[in-house]
Design goal:
The structure is a homodimer. Chain A is an alpha+beta fold and about 650 residues long. Helix content of chain A is about 40%, strand content about 10%.
Chain lengths: ~650, ~650
C-alpha cells in the first residue's frame, strides 16, 4: 500500500494500574477499520467468551472509527464494547458528541481497559499522555456534578467526559455510559461493565489534528456537505429531527404504545416534534463538526418535571419509551425522564421498556401492589414512571429488579411474564415496530447486539423508488413492499444491515446522507488508500461476522435469533390493524438470511468458508475450538507486528 | 432510478428472414450490463441447453458492453456468444477493433440470431436499420476478399465487417469470427456456430453517438487516460505489447513449449517482442478510441511465408501457439500462420494447440505417417504447421479431424492420446502455464468457457506489493507467492476472476489500467446511475454464475473443472524445474473455491441461495427443472416490459 495509516491503542490494566501503548499496523487498520471491527478483534482474541461479563476477564474497549475526529460533519462518533452484561454476547454501543473526536485528537485510536481497579478511578487522557486518577470522591455522584468536578480538578473546561452514573456503579444491566451529559452509549449494558471495573470516567483532551492523507479533499467534502446537506436525506434531521418519527410511526400504525400492545397512541400529538418545538425546546445542540444540529435542547422550569438544558433533550427513542410505550402523553414527563436517565446513567430505551413491561404485568395482575412498594403501576401513571427511574438507579425495591432489564424482570415475576417482554437477546426493542416493517424485524432478529435499531433496515423509504436512491449502489434497484419477506427482501435486508455496519466502523453518523461514493472518497482522503465500496462492504461484513462469532463462542445460538411473541400478534388499530407477520414466512426468511449470510443453520455461527472469504480464517479457528492464545501466536503476517 | 438507460436488441430470425427489435429496460440493463450478462440472459431463457450447438435451436448472440462505443480508450470491445460447439457449454468470446463501437453507433446494443438461413446470407446494419442480404457469392471466400466485396457492394469503405471464413463455413469447431480482418472472437468455436446458421457476415455502419448521461465527464476521463496511460499498467502495452510475455514467461520457466512438455524454449529470442520489432513490424494499429496502439502490423515479403499488413500481426498467444508450442523459432512462420488463420477464420490458439498435440502423438508413434498424409509431423517442422492450417480450413485429410480441436483429435487417435491434450472443457489452454502461477490454474479450471485466459488471474504481478495496487480495492491487501493455494489465495483468485468479468460486461479492454474507481466513474458517466464497485461486483458475479448455470443445464459437471494431466507433471528445466502442483492441495483449493463461489460441490451449479443473493432467482428455477418458458412468464417486474 502506498500510504501507511496506522493506529494507536492505549491499554489500561486496571488491576495493576499499568498503562501501555501498542500500534495497529496499516494492514490491521485496513482490515478492521474501527468500531465493531476493532472491538471484535480485541474481544475474540483477548476475552474468554464464557467469562462473567462483570468479572475481571471481561474488557471494556473504547474505540473510534476511521473518520472520527476528522473536521467534517458526521465524524463525531465513537463506539464502546465488551462482553455484554445484558445479552451475554457481543456488546457494543456508539454515540456522537465530542468525546470520540477528542480521543482521536489526543492521539489514540482506542483504549482497552482490562482487569478491575481496587478502588474507583478515572482515566485522564491528553495529547498522547494518559494517567489513572483516584475517583472515590466522584463515586455516587450524578453526571453533571461529576463532569464539573473533573473539569475543575483538571483545570480545563474543554475536557470531554465519558462516565457512568450511580446506575452503572451499581451494575444495573441497563446502565449506559454518558458523554457530554447527553450522548449515551446506551445499549447492551456497557455502563454496568464500566462500573464493574470501578472506572468512573474517562476524561479526554487533545489538540492534534488526526492524521489525514489528503486534508484538502476532506475540507472540500466537508464544505460540500455544509452547502448541500439540506438537499439530501439529512435535511429532515435539521427540521423535525428524530422526533418526526412520532407522527410518522403513528400514521403507519406502529408507534409502540402501552408495551407494544398497540401501534396508535391517542396522545401522540403531545409527544410530537411540533409540540416539543413549541413547548420546551430552547436551542439546538450538535456534534463535532456537524451543521445539522439535530439535538434539541430542552429547558423546563416546573416543580414536578424540571429539566436543565445541560442534560439535552429526549430523542425519538426516549420519547417513545417514556411516552407512548408507557401510555404517557406529556412531554414534560419524557423530558424529565430523559434528564434523570442521563444523570443516573441509564439507557432510556431499556428503562422505559422495563417500566412498560412492569405496567402490563401489574395491569394483568402478575405484579402486586406490594411488589411495587405501593405504586399504582398502570399505563399513563407518570409519577410512577419517574419514581421507578429513581428507584432503579438506587436499586431500591422493585427498582433493584428493573435494573436487570425486562428479560430478568420477567424471570423474577414468573407466571409466564416473559410473554410480555419485547426483547431480542434480552435487549428491548427500540421504538420501531417490525409489524410495520418486516425487513426491520428480520434485521433485529439477527443483530449480534440484540434488538438494535442501529443495525437494521428501519426506514420505510425503501418501499418507494425515490427512497431507494441511497441503496441502489448496493445493488438494490427495485422497491419492495413493507410486508414482503421474499428472497429479494431478504437480500435487501442483508445489503442494508451489512452496509450500515460501515457507519459504525468509520464513525460516520447515519443521519448524514453521504452517498456510497462519498463514503469511499472520505475514507480514501483520510487514509490514503484506494479503497472501494466493495472492500468497505467486505470490511463491514467482516466486522458483523466477528460479532456473530463471538456470540456463538459465548453460547448464543439460532434460538436467540427470533422476534418476541408480542410483535407476532396483530395490532388492534391503525394502518396495519389485524395483520400478522406470518410465522412460517418469517421463519423461512430467517433461514434464507442465514444461508445468504453464510451462517450455519444449526450453530448460527459464520461458516469457515464465509470467514475465509472475509480473510479472517483465524476466527474460524476459534470457532473450531482453537484457543485464542494459539490463534494469536499464528496471527497472519500483516497483524504480526501489530502488538509489540 | 434517476435516469433511464435502456438498450436495443435486434432479433434476426434466419429461418424466416424476419427482423424485429426489442427494448432492454433500464432495470434489465443495470442488472446484466452487457457481454456475458446479456449472452447468459438470452441463452438461459431462449436456448434449450441440451440442444445441438450446430442445430437450429442454438442462437448466436452478438452484444456490446456498457462502455462499447464511448469515445474513449478501451471502449472498443464487443462479445459474441451461444452454446459452444467446442465445449458443449456456455460459449463466448470477445474482441476489440471497431466493430463493437460501430454496432453501438448504428443504434443497437445486441443482435440475437436464431434459426438457420436456407441459403448463405449476411446482415447489413446501419443507423437503426437492418436487412439480410444474400451471401452465396461470398461463401467460400477468404476474409480479405469478403470484406472488400461487402464494402464494394454497400458502397462504403468504413463498413465494419464481422465474418466467418471457410473454416467456419465448414463448421470447424476451432473456427473463429474475424473482425476488421485481424480481431478475432477466437475461442469456444463461435465461427462454427455462425457457419451453422449460414450467416457469412455482419456488416455494420453507424453514425450516432451512443447515449451518454454525462458526455463531459466521459471526455474528461478520456483525456485523463490519453495524458496519463504511460504512468499506469497500460504502459507496457504501448512498448512491447503482448509479445513481451514471450521473454517473461520463458524467464519464469513457463513458456509453453512443445505441447507444454517444457517451459523454456531455446529459440525464444526469435519469437520475442524485440526481434519482432526489428524484423517484420511495419506499423502499429489500434482499436476504437485507443491511444495505446498495442496491435503490431506486420509485413513480410517472402516466397514461403508472406504476410500482408491487412491481416495484422500475431499477438503473444498466437506466437506461442505456432512458435514455442510447436517448437518453431521462426517469426516469419508465426506471422504467416497468423495471416492464414485470420484469412480462413481459425482460432490461432486452437489451431496451434491441435497441431502441437498431433506432433507429440506423431513423435510418440500414436499417429502414423499415413494418417498425416505423408507429413513428417515433428516439433519444429514449420512447413507441416503451415500445411495443416490449409488442410484444416479445407477439412482435407488429417485437417478434417484437426478442425474438431485437440480433444476430439485425441478421441479419434485413441490409444490414450487424451493424455497429451492440454484442454479444459475441450478447449485448449492459452499460452499461460499454471505451473508458474497456480492461481491461474484454479481460475481456468472453473472458467465457464473452458481454459480461457480472459477469465483468470494470469498476472504474476500479484505476488508483489506493487502489483497489488490494482486489486487492493477488491480487498486483496497482502501479496501471496505464485505457488500458494491457501484459502487466502483462493480468495484472491475469486476476487480477480469475478472482477475481471466486469471488463467483459462493460467492453473495457483489460489492457487499460483504469482503476476500480475509474471504472465506477466511467459507468456512471455513461448510464447516469450512481453505481458502486459493490454493485458492479455483483453484476460480474451474476453474469459469471449465469454462465456456470448454463453449463450445468447443458450437462457439464464438477468433473469438467479440472486441470489437464500434462500440467500436473513437473517441467524438466527452468525456474520451476521439477516442481509439481500438489494434486491434493489443488483439489482442496478447488473445493474451497466452489464453496466460496456458492457452488454445489456435487452438481457444480450455483446454489439457489447464491442466485437469490445475486437477485436472479429465476436461474435457480431453471436449475430446479422449471421450463424456460414458464420462468419467462413469471419474470420479475423490471424485466416484465423488456420485450414487447
Amino acid at each position: 500500500m502506498a500510504e501507511e495509516f496506522t493506529g494507536v491503542c492505549l491499554r489500561v490494566n486496571l488491576t495493576t494500574g499499568q498503562l501501555t501503548t501498542e500500534t495497529y499496523s496499516s494492514i490491521l487498520m485496513r482490515r478492521y477499520l474501527g468500531g465493531w471491527g476493532l472491538i471484535g478483534y480485541h474481544l475474540l482474541r483477548e476475552v474468554p467468551p464464557q467469562c462473567d461479563p462483570l468479572g475481571p476477564e471481561n474488557k471494556l474497549i473504547v474505540t473510534s472509527g476511521i473518520m472520527t475526529g476528522q473536521p467534517l460533519a458526521g465524524g463525531g462518533r465513537h463506539m464502546i464494547g465488551g462482553k455484554s452484561p445484558l445479552t451475554g454476547g457481543f456488546g457494543a454501543g456508539e454515540c456522537g458528541g465530542f468525546f470520540g473526536a477528542e480521543l482521536k485528537r489526543a492521539g489514540f485510536t482506542s483504549i482497552v481497559f482490562e482487569g478491575i481497579s481496587p478502588t474507583p478511578v478515572y482515566l485522564w487522557v491528553h495529547d498522547g499522555q494518559a494517567e489513572l486518577r483516584p475517583a472515590e470522591h466522584l463515586w455516587g455522584h450524578e453526571a453533571l456534578e461529576t463532569e464539573q468536578q473533573i473539569r475543575d480538578e483538571l483545570g480545563d473546561r474543554l475536557v470531554r467526559v465519558a462516565q457512568i452514573g450511580p446506575a452503572g456503579e451499581r451494575l444495573a444491566r441497563i446502565a449506559n455510559i454518558i458523554h457530554d451529559l447527553n450522548r449515551a452509549v446506551g445499549r447492551t449494558g456497557m455502563g454496568a461493565l464500566m462500573g464493574s471495573k470501578r472506572l468512573k470516567a474517562i476524561a479526554v483532551r487533545g489538540k492534534q489534528r488526526p492524521s489525514t492523507a489528503d486534508p484538502e479533499r476532506i475540507s472540500e467534502l466537508g464544505k460540500w456537505f455544509r452547502d448541500h446537506y439540506k438537499e439530501t436525506g439529512s435535511a429532515v434531521f435539521s427540521t423535525l429531527a428524530t422526533l418526526r418519527m412520532v407522527r410518522n410511526n403513528n400514521n403507519f400504525g406502529g408507534l409502540p404504545t402501552r408495551n407494544f400492545q398497540e401501534g396508535v397512541f391517542e396522545g401522540f400529538e403531545k409527544l410530537s416534534a411540533e409540540h416539543q418545538l413549541e413547548t420546551v425546546t430552547v436551542g439546538r445542540d450538535t456534534c463535532f463538526g456537524c451543521p445539522i444540529r439535530c439535538k434539541w435542547v430542552v429547558k423546563i422550569e416546573d416543580d414536578k418535571y424540571p429539566v436543565r438544558p445541560e442534560y439535552g433533550g429526549p430523542e425519538y427513542e426516549t420519547t417513545g419509551s417514556f411516552g407512548s410505550l408507557c401510555g404517557i402523553d406529556n412531554n414534560y414527563v419524557t423530558c424529565h425522564a430523559n434528564e434523570l436517565c442521563n444523570a443516573y446513567g441509564l439507557d432510556t430505551i431499556g428503562m422505559g421498556s422495563v417500566i412498560a413491561v412492569a405496567m402490563e404485568c401489574y395491569e394483568r395482575g402478575l405484579l402486586t401492589r406490594e411488589q411495587t412498594d405501593g405504586l399504582e403501576l398502570v399505563f399513563g401513571n407518570a409519577d410512577a414512571v419517574i419514581e421507578l427511574i429513581h428507584r432503579t438507579a438506587r436499586r431500591e425495591g422493585l427498582g433493584h429488579v428493573l435494573a436487570e432489564g425486562s428479560a430478568r424482570l420477567a424471570e423474577w415475576i414468573g407466571q409466564g411474564a416473559e410473554r410480555y417482554t419485547v426483547t431480542i437477546k434480552k435487549q428491548d426493542l427500540a421504538m420501531h415496530d417490525p409489524r410495520i416493517k418486516y425487513g426491520h424485524g428480520l434485521g433485529i432478529a439477527v443483530s449480534p447486539t440484540g434488538a438494535d435499531h442501529m443495525h437494521s433496515l428501519h426506514d420505510n423509504a425503501y418501499q418507494t423508488v425515490g427512497g431507494l436512491a441511497e441503496i441502489e449502489p448496493l445493488g438494490v434497484i427495485e422497491p419492495l413492499p413493507f410486508d414482503d419477506l421474499s428472497p429479494a427482501k431478504v437480500r435487501m435486508v442483508r445489503q442494508v444491515i451489512i452496509w450500515r455496519t460501515l457507519d459504525n466502523l468509520t464513525g460516520i453518523c447515519m443521519f448524514h446522507s453521504w452517498t456510497v461514493q462519498q463514503k469511499v472518497d472520505l475514507i480514501n482522503a483520510v487514509t490514503g488508500w484506494s479503497t472501494s465500496a466493495l472492500e468497505l462492504w467486505q470490511a463491514s461484513e467482516r466486522a458483523y461476522n466477528m460479532a456473530r462469532a463471538f456470540n456463538t463462542l459465548a453460547g448464543l445460538s439460532a434460538a436467540d435469533d427470533r422476534l418476541p411473541e408480542r410483535v407476532m400478534e396483530p395490532l388492534p388499530e391503525g394502518a396495519v390493524a389485524g395483520k400478522v407477520i406470518p410465522r412460517e414466512v418469517f421463519a423461512e426468511a430467517l433461514v434464507k438470511l442465514y444461508a445468504m449470510m453464510g451462517w450455519d443453520p444449526v450453530t448460527a455461527a459464520p461458516t469457515r468458508i464465509k470467514l475465509e472469504e472475509l480473510d479472517i480464517p483465524w476466527v474460524a479457528d476459534l470457532l473450531e475450538g482453537k484457543k485464542a492464545q494459539d490463534v494469536m501466536r499464528e496471527r497472519p503476517e500483516g497483524e504480526g507486528d501489530a502488538f509489540g
